[in-house]
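To: structure desk
From: M.T.
Subject: fold request, one chain
Message: Could you run this one when you get a chance? Sequence is below, nothing fancy, just the single chain.
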Amino acid sequence: MTDHASCKSILVTGGAGYIGSHVVKLLGEQGERIVVLDNLSTGNEDAVLYGTLIQGDTGDAELVSRILDEHDVDTVMHFAAHTIVPESVENPLKYYANNTRSTLNLLQCCQAAGVDKVIFSSTAATYGIPQDDTKPCTEELPTAPINPYGMSKLMSEHMLKDLSQATNLRHVILRYFNVAGSDPDGMIGQSTRNATLLIKVAAEVAVGKREQLVVFGTDYPTPDGTGIRDYIHVTDLASAHLSALEYLRDGGDSTLVNCGYGKGFSVREVIESVSRINGEALNVVEQPRRAGDPPALIAAVEKIQQTLNWTPKFDDLDVIVQTSLDWEERLTLRAEVRSATG
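Reply: Done. Structure tokens follow.
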């Protein structure tokens, strides 16, 4: 392990958000020097457990350059992005502005400051709808995003790759599949307002924050008719970023890897797990398919396991669901305490 006392700082953009805050927690527990940049539009100040939090945008070149210089940053972990697919279809320029243009600005600042390591938060949405969804998606699959969110991330990937070809910058691109769950210690979790991710929404229904769970599509060519996804626990995903950091510090070449477990669960299987653990059936409403939802999306994971020497610890749907329910209950209790104390 690296001697962190002699290390420079790590800039984590979007570090007050769901995934970024879990990465910051693991980095802090490892003794890293951290500075978080987040505009708090969807992030939560209380979720930043370590390091220095600066409120601002990755699109602010003057601010980013000053942070890189003053905090002696040599590594950037870039999470800051809009991530809601339907919103990206309705308002594409919002996504190209924040996800792509702001990444361009960040990379320009990195180049000027001599930052030589970048770990980038990307998405399986870059694959679009795989031609053969019966097989796991490998990193070599053609990319064909079907929405502006996926395209905005793919454009950022290309910029990062091209800059690495032209300079001494090295990077790891992590393509996330379906991230779920919350910190097993209960210190942080998914606090996103108006969340759209299935397990988060199901947990909110379970604790009474929502009246119903809508299932989009029950006629897919899958065993139970509902879509199948590869769910990865957020703490395992966070640990993959630390593995990527060690990989780059050890001199690893630029690479791109999928982040998942290599297996999937259907929407009905997720609902069954939430209902069983919660001890009460969920109120489920079935609606037609949404355009662009593939029947199944599962990650091929051999590359991340071999290249980054990454091994998941929470590879269990019930564990993912339990940590989600625990967090929702904590949020409910906090709200009740705030209400009682005025």
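Reply (cont.): The chain has a mean pLDDT of 94. Let me know if you need anything else for the meeting.
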